[in-house]
Amino acid sequence: MSWAVTGTGAVAALGGDVGELFGNLCAGRSGVAELRGFDHARHTARHAYEVDNRPAPGVDVPGRATGLLLDAVGQAVRDAGLDESDLSGVPVLIGTGLRELRSVELWRTEGAGFPAARLHFGTALREAFRADDTHTLSNACSAGLYALALGVDLLAQGTDTVVVAGVDVLTETMYGLLERVQPVPPTRVRPFDRDRDGVLMGEGAAAVVLSRAPGGRPVHGLVRDVAVNCDAFHVTAPDPAGIAEAIREAHTRGGVKPADIDLLMVHGTGTLLNDEAEATALADVFGPDRDKPLVTATKSMTGHTSGASGLLNLVVTLRCLAEGRVPPTVGLDHPVDEAAGFRFVTGEAAHRPLTVAQLNAFGFGGINAVAILEAAR
Question: The Ketosynthase family 3 (KS3) domain covers which part of the protein (predicted)?
Answer without folding.
Answer: 1-375
